[in-house]
User: Which sequence fits this backbone?
């Protein structure tokens, strides 16, 4: 799904404090905000709407199987070889 950017205004000193203490616990502000947004989405968006939105997600593309190449017989020239 395509991502969007959200801009939030927050007091700078408080932001520094949050980042400092998150870092001490091994967490990141981005991960915490992602988790918080997922909880908001689940709390406020009705399940039927979530199901509809999530059904529109494209599954990861599967690699196409490659066609097998026939073995070259000993008498045929390989590409790039000179006739001498």
Assistant:
């Amino acid at each position: 799904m395509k991502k969007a950017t959200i801009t939030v205004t927050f007091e700078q000193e408080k932001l520094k404090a949050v980042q400092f203490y998150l870092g001490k616990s091994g967490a990141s502000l981005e991960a915490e905000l992602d988790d918080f947004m997922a909880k908001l989405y689940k709390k406020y968006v009705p399940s039927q709407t979530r199901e509809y939105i999530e059904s529109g997600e494209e599954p990861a593309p599967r690699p196409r199987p490659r066609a097998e190449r026939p073995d070259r017989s000993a008498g045929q020239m390989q590409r790039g070889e000179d006739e001498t």
Summary: DSSP finds three helices and no strands in the chain.
